[in-house]
Amino acid sequence: MKQLMKKNNIKYLLICIIILAGIIMIAIKGFKFDLSYETTKKVEIYIGKEFDVKDIKAITNETLGNKDVLIEKVEIFKDMVSIKSKDITDEEKNNIVTKINEKYELENKAEEVNVVNVPHTRLKDIYKKYVYPFIISIVIILIYSAIRFRKIGAFKSILKIILTVVLSEATFMSVVALFRIPIGRITTAIILLLYVVSIICIISKLENKLIEKKKKESKDNKIK
What we know:
By secondary structure, this protein is α+β, with helices and mostly antiparallel strands. It has 6 helices and 4 strands; from the N terminus they run αβαββαβααα. It has helices at 2-29, 53-64, 90-104, 123-148, 154-178, 185-223, and strands at 40-46, 69-74, 80-85, 115-118. α4 (123-148) packs antiparallel against α5.
């Protein structure tokens, strides 16, 4: 029992250190964002036919070199390409248009294609659409837990759920900040998955405690 408590103490100490280090990193450097949310320059070119993103990537590798590039199909029929990078000069844009024209036998005019500045998306704007679903779901879970686990302490059960969710999310975000992992669609999916897994794990532990308590009560009643 003492050894288990010691292991738990070490685990929580490590989590606290990671979170503290993450807070310091966020205060100094903030989060890193991928090109979906970072300040970028964007070029959109109409192709008007089916195209392969890999072919566009080959063209941007030639024209933009080692720059990070985000290439997406846009418009209703996915017949226009959007190219984003931290910086795209007019010369690079002209070269991209020329090579796409050659590849797909088009007649786009470079002067009619603009390099558009795309502003940085703030973290709160990325996650604000998840706030209300999160609040509603956590309230429902806490009400259920207060009723379901009242025999092992409703307040303690609620507190454990809140702490588990907060610590798991805070630890993950700290790791993201410390290792400069870009915030994007993948990290958002992991955050949502982590929330669900955390809830499932803590509910499962509480269920086991409740079962143990019921078994003990049943055994005590038989002895009486």
